[in-house]
Write a structure and sequence with these properties.
It is a multi-pass membrane protein. This protein is 72% helix and 0% strand. The protein is an all-alpha fold. Helix 1 packs across helix 5 and helix 5 packs antiparallel against helix 7.
Length: 224
């Protein structure tokens, strides 16, 4: 039975919500690990500048000791200081990004993929599924990129020198708009589209040509 566009969007909304609950802690850790290198490089540069400076205060500065941060260290620290809620920092912004993404992606893919079906009972060719996944994925990624920028800023626990802190989604949005301009919300959109397009294109090909079902059928079946 064919779903209406509204039902397709609601299905995407449910899928996006479930995905966010599972992946937010991993996304949070990923951002902290990416930030750790940036903050360490900034501290190292400041220490070098302080050593070259002739001022008494700067001259007394000690060189920064470079330490490697791991995901387990971040996880333990978050759980110790903030509990489970620490791993879900930025959950609202993540929902704001991933739920609209799924609402746009799934209906758009389904309708694009149908264009390649010669008959409703026959699957579209694999290249149609691939291209449909690429187009739908990149379109949805660019559409929700402003939410991705906000989410990343909120989930960054470490701040560099003179970097803003944010109290929530509205505060973050306001400060980015005022200090960096509206184009700041599209930062990384091009790169994100390049990542998402092949990712979802390949995923849809694997699903629609039945590779997963084929592999599952090869597993030994247990008799009741």
């Amino acid at each position: 039975k064919k779903l209406t566009l509204l039902r397709e969007m609601l299905a995407g909304c449910g899928a996006g919500t479930c995905q966010v609950i599972v992946t937010t802690p991993m996304e949070m850790l990923k951002i902290q690990l990416q930030d750790a290198g940036r903050i360490a490089a900034q501290k190292k540069l400041m220490a070098a500048q302080a050593q070259l400076s002739s001022s008494p205060v700067a001259g007394a500065a000690e060189p920064a000791v470079e330490t490697r941060t791991t995901a387990m260290q971040i996880t333990r620290e978050l759980l110790r200081s903030k509990g489970i809620a620490g791993l879900y920092k930025g959950l609202g912004a993540t929902l704001l990004r991933d739920v609209p993404f799924s609402i746009v992606y799934f209906p758009l893919f389904a309708n694009l993929n149908k264009l390649g079906q010669k008959d409703p009972s026959v699957k579209a060719p694999f290249y149609v599924s691939f291209l449909s996944g690429c187009v739908a994925g990149s379109t949805a990624a660019v559409a929700v990129n402003p939410c991705d920028v906000i989410k990343t800023r909120l989930q960054s626990l470490q701040r560099g020198v003179n970097e803003d802190t944010y109290s929530g989604i509205l505060d973050c949005t306001k400060k980015i708009w005022q200090k960096e301009g509206p184009m700041a919300f599209l930062k990384g959109a091009y790169c994100r589209a390049l990542v998402i397009a092949p990712l979802f294109g390949i995923a849809q090909v694997v699903y629609f040509i039945g590779i997963a079902e084929f592999l599952l059928d090869m597993l030994p079946k247990h008799r009741a």
